[in-house]
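Notes to self after the call with IL:
- keep both proteins in one doc
- input above output, always
- annotate only the second one for now

Protein 1:
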Amino acid sequence: MASLTKSNYLKALAHIGAFVTATAWGVSFLSTKVLMTDGHLSPVEMFVYRFVAAYILIFIITCRKKLFADNWRDEFQMAVCGICAGSLYFITENYALENTTTGNVSLLASISPLFTAAIMGLVFRTKVPKGVVIGSIVAFVGVACVIFGGENGFKISPKGDLLAILAALSWAVYSLVAKRLIPIYSGMFLTRKMFFYGVITAIPFLIWQHSVMDEPYHLNILFDFGQPHYILNFIFLAIFCSMLAYIVWNEVMKVLGPVMTNNYLYIQPLVTMVAAYFVLGEMIYPLSYVGCTLIIGGLIMADKLKLK
């Protein structure tokens, strides 16, 4: 009975952690918009600067405990996680925004939980409960309602749409590779290694962007104390949405598993919509309320239905 109570307690904490993390990531779109639009940071700069800051912080905390994984196989898999959840994911997603609509990117990037379930079933031959799959599909339909509940519809833009799908696939790959690592290593250590490999593989893109495209660096805006909202948004992205969020997310996957954890990604468009309403004054349309209900219902369904 005691172990059952402890298990339920950990599961409840995991759900709270996943919800809070997804909420932070949903709000992060507004902070990113401020730094990219007003501060003129490029998509690659946005990723590199925030994750370098997060890596330095977490390195200071953990460097004395452990520098490398237990073996080269684990080190390689951590590199894969860093690329898939770091440089590849953010760069493809940010450049997708330049080639298709924000709605398309938000919707297509939300396919990640479905990719995760499909890869687990087809490649790893792991049985995914039907309730989790059904709940994921219901939540995905809810995301579509939230995103396209306004005046704009889905407009096909092959280049940008494919980049958004690639971002979703890369996140699914990270989730499945991390599934093997998270029982062995702490979430903090795994996050630090991921940030390292993510930044290292993104730096060539940053150099190429400024040498070939002859674009100036905009790092100075982060130290413009005459505009404190720049540094405040950057701190929020680096500390809360990068360092703390990834640590919590990796720990949550230990308890809930990659599919159920990734289902919380469906909350992001919902949070972004609500935040944009209060911060930017953007309208919320009737179909969006239906989408909210489907997202919440899908998450509850995925957790409660234990259909085999």
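Protein 2 (the one to annotate):
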Amino acid sequence: MNEYFHLYLEIACLLIALIYSPHLKKNKGFIYFLPFLIVTVGVELIAKFGMTNTNVSRSTRFMLFNVFTACEFVFYSAIFLLHLGNKTLKKIIRILIPVYLLLVTLNIMFVQGTNSFHTYTFLLGSFFMVVYSCFFLYESILPDSINIKLSLQPFFWICIGLLIFYLGSVIINALFEYLTSASMREQGAKIYTTITNSLNVILYGSFSIAFILCRNNRKTSSSPS
């Protein structure tokens, strides 16, 4: 599969967000996906084309993605804060955001170092995303929250995309060392690339569906509890 495949998906998703931007403004928090996707595409472009020079250190490349993915988890957490109804969970998320950033910093500085990807804290962030997604889906099926079909709610698709993407990421990154071992190097790299590309299709495909559904201006947040 083309090495730029996920970049094409991100650009396509960004274009759809731009097309439906007037409608994104009418749905809680969705307009923030525009700058987020611009940054996402920008980071990928810098990594692909701006860091091809051999003078760019390995640690610089990893630091770019370490910082971006940490900020990515913060962004998604903030979006969940806008759409979750449970006040206790929202308080927990507000506490977890700075705690998570601290853990990422400590992991990069003292555990995994600047010369590698922060897999430990990435897996932790992925776990948080799965929990938040499951909780939103639980709130969405409560009697007081059922006013329209879930499939017509834009944030439902955001949630589904994040749930599948990060659940898959937990599994594939847990197997990363095995897939890149000497005995599995060639075949493992193909498996890893195929799965990650498939997960990206689901993630950005779900985002795109959500942006298109925003034209209906449906309420997407759960009832407070």
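Annotation: Residues 218-225 have pLDDT under 50 and may be disordered. The radius of gyration is 18 Å.
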